[in-house]
Structure formats: structure tokens, C-alpha cells
Amino acid sequence: MKYIEFDSSKKYDLILLGRIAVDLNPVDYYCPLNESTTFKRYLGGSPANIAVGLARLGKKCGFFARVSDDQLGTFVTDFFEKEGIDTSRVKRCENGEKIGLTFTEIKSETESSIVMYRNDAADL
Predict the structure, then answer these.
(1) Contact (Cβ atoms closer than 8 angstroms) between residue 103 and residue 24
(2) Residue 6 lies inside a defined structural domain of this protein
């Protein structure tokens, strides 16, 4: 298998573009979502998760996106910055758009369902 070689003289190894969400997963697995009372917060959205994974592998990443101008937008930018991801192109929304929320219901070891809230989402 041939691996990708990155030019270490470049500012970034990869710049990602796309949706960022906040995932809220119940602490109690196998409990119906309507009965869950305690949730753990995670960064979500495929491009965001890829950026975090690459940063943890030592790659220099930047990100283009928009996030809500509230506590959840701050959660995202703080999370990225702690992971070493450049957030200079992550912009705050100015018209009240909110970041997408995703709730995951773990039904069994092999089955889950997802409820997403994305109306007027803070996306590009």
C-alpha cells in the first residue's frame, strides 16, 4: 500500500470544508431516546471528525465553515483549537443560524438511529 506523502514546508497538509454539528449521545445505551435523561456532547459532522482524526495523527489542518454565534459555536472552535486545527476560516453566523444537533439512540450492539435538527443550520 502506498501512503500519501505531505510536503512539510506547506502551512497545511489538508484544508477541510463542510458541516460541523454537535452530537448528543445518551449515556445509557439501549434506553429509548424518549426515556434518556443524560447525554454526552461530542463534535460531529464527517468533515469535522476527519479534521480531528488527521490532527491527532500529527497533520496540519485548516477548516472552512460557519458555526452559530453562541455557546455551541464556541464549543466547536475551542475543541478545534485544542486539537491544533486552524479556525481562522471558521466564521460565526450573523443571522441567528444555529449549529446542527444530532441525537443518537443506541438500540443494541448492532442497531442505532439518529435524530437530526438542521433547520436554518449554520453551514456554508
Answers:
(1) yes
(2) no
pTM of the model: 0.87
In a domain, 72, yes or no: yes
Confidence band for 75, pLDDT divided at 50, 70 and 90: very high
Host domain of residue 22: 14-117
The answer as to whether 92 is a domain residue is yes
CA 69, CA 99: separation in Å to the nearest integer?
A: 9
* pLDDT tens column, 87-121: 999 999 999 999 999 999 988 999 999 999 987 77
Q: Pick from 13, 90, 11: which is nearest to 48 by CA?
A: 90
124: closest CA among 16, 19, 14, 12? 19
DSSP code, position 105 = E
**Number of compact structural domains in the chain:** 1
CATH of the domain at 54: 3.40.1190.30
Other CB atoms within 10 Å distance of the CB of residue 82: 10
Separation between Cα atoms, residue 14 and residue 30, nearest integer Å: 37
Residue type (1 letter), 69: D
